[in-house]
Amino acid sequence: MYDLDDGKLNEKQERAIVLLAEGKNYNEVAKEVGVNRSTIYRWKTENALFMVEHNRLRDNLWLASEGRLLKARTAAIEEAMALLEHEDPRVRLRAVEIILRKEATRFIGTMSLRSAMHEVQVNQRG
Asked: Which one of 31, 50, 91, 118 has the lowest number of neighbouring Cβ atoms within 10 Å?
């Protein structure tokens, strides 16, 4: 049975959620928050509101990281594309290599997935 407490988290619990989402372990969180390690464990495994808020913060941080990575990837691709117009042919060639290597990696990954799916279908037919 999960402990719902009074439907609110106290300051220590809120701080613990942030620290856990930052990747700190139970001992580090307990020391910084000023509670026993077992309290952190109990909050994380028995307090439904704590679990929900911890998962929500962790998911939001993950989505923000994914967004930043996607933005950086897009900028990198645009920069490589711009280098295709560079006056130095060595720079252009290097840009082509980078772009083709990235596309080849994506293609190989797709082909590996297709091969695996085909193998499953063949095995199912039997």
From this structure: 118
Identify the helix (H) or strand (E) that includes residue 110: helix 89-125
Residue 78 lies in a domain: no
Q: What pTM, to 2 d.p., does this model score?
A: 0.53
The pLDDT tens digits for 25-42 are: 999 999 999 999 999 999
| Residue 79, in any domain of the structure | no
* Gap between the Cα atoms of 39 and 36, Å rounded: 5
How does pLDDT run across 72-126, given as a tens digit for each residue? 888 888 888 888 899 998 998 888 888 888 776 666 665 565 666 666 666 666 5
Tell me the three state secondary structure of residue 9.
coil
CA distance 46 to 52: 11
What domain range includes position 104? Answer: 84-126
